[in-house]
């Protein structure tokens, strides 16, 4: 994604405001990334339903490095701990202090939709390889089970769609 960073956030004195803008942008686009492919947990390999985002925005503006960790379930202790080890290692390498995870524990009994499912209806069945799911014709990233779901999600998706400049699928079976 190559979003247009507002001019007000491009000077070093506005770093705090820029940081807030980046976090808002990432959270608003998370659904589009999550529902772009049937991602697997980066720890155990199971089909995943949670995303954990880490960003280091200390680089010269307007660059942002974004790391998205795909996780089957952040409530699964072994996967959660492995992701935290990765985050700490990346903090050490980048020289930026460790940032605790940006998620709230999900309420008991709540199941998040699978990655790769339709971004609108989020039905788990739409994450199946034989579900006949289609990608947005504009950004080629976000997936929908049909035109009705795509149309119903357009008011939310259009900002992300405009921010995506190029999508190249590499190394996915």
From TrEMBL:
MF (Gene Ontology): zinc ion binding
Keyword Zinc-finger assigned: yes
Classification via Pfam families: zf-MYND (PF01753)
Keyword check for Magnesium: no
Keywords from the UniProt entry: Metal-binding, Zinc, Zinc-finger
Family matches, as InterPro entries: Znf_MYND
Protein name as catalogued: MYND-type domain-containing protein
Organism of origin: Sistotremastrum niveocremeum HHB9708
Source species taxonomy: Eukaryota, Fungi, Dikarya, Basidiomycota, Agaricomycotina
């Amino acid at each position: 994604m190559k979003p247009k960073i507002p001019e007000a956030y491009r000077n070093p004195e506005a770093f705090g405001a820029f940081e807030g803008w980046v976090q808002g942008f990432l959270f608003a686009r998370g659904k589009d990334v999550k529902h772009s492919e049937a991602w697997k947990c980066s720890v155990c390999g199971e089909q995943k339903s949670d995303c954990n985002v880490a960003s280091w925005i200390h680089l010269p503006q307007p660059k942002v490095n974004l790391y998205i960790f795909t996780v089957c379930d952040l409530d699964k202790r072994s996967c959660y701990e492995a992701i935290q080890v990765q985050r700490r290692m990346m903090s050490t390498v980048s020289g930026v202090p460790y940032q605790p995870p940006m998620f709230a524990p999900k309420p008991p009994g709540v199941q998040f939709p699978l990655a790769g499912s339709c971004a609108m209806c989020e039905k788990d069945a739409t994450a199946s390889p034989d579900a006949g799911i289609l990608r947005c014709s504009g950004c080629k990233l976000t997936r929908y089970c049909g035109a009705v779901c795509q149309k119903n999600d357009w008011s939310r998706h259009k900002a992300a769609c405009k921010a995506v400049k190029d999508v190249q699928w590499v190394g996915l079976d």
